């Protein structure tokens, strides 16, 4: 006696962590976190408040980011990526090195001079020890930016445009020079009469000083050739 074969049941739908994340909700959570961390500090914000601000459930926030520390780190990384995308540190075969450094310098200064970055800096530097929040900030923002720039410098050294005996130290010097007096004035609230021309002169002067220190001997800083020419 034959029996009608049973239909193969459909595969179960993935659930829990296996489900694809909603990128729109993730972006909304990050935007809410950036606003609230800036306005209220790290300790003054709860995951419930961030969820409400983003229009999602607290479970959704935890599903995307795990905990508040991870969310804080991701918010810092997202802010850096807005101003300094990873593509900014890629070698451009058709652009002179000085122009590439100017692009990086302008982007970095715009990042550190933004109201959000200044507010987060104040939040981090007013935390009592141990400086756990400071380490989170360093790892998510400054360290990642510096490591990306170190990679850029190594490429330029390999192309023969720069002579840099200590890439890590040179990258640190580059960003410290870019901060300079202007960033300290911003942190102190002394930004009255801050002109775009002053910022541009500061960035250009920093790049020229950096190139005088590390450009290949014989290459004038203002005329360092594009990477394509340097590799010929």
TrEMBL record:
Pfam families: TetR_C_7, TetR_N. InterPro entries: Homeodomain-like_sf, HTH-type_TetR-like_transc_reg, HTH_TetR, TetR_C_Proteobacteria. Residues 7-17 have a biased composition (Pro residues). Keywords: DNA-binding, Transcription, Transcription regulation. Residues 46-65 bind DNA. GO terms for molecular function: DNA-binding transcription factor activity; transcription cis-regulatory region binding. Residues 23-83 form the HTH tetR-type domain. The keyword Transferase does not apply. Residues 1-23 are annotated as: Disordered. The keyword Ion transport does not apply. SUPFAM superfamilies: Homeodomain-like. PROSITE patterns: HTH_TETR_2. This is TetR/AcrR family transcriptional regulator. It comes from Agrilutibacter solisilvae.
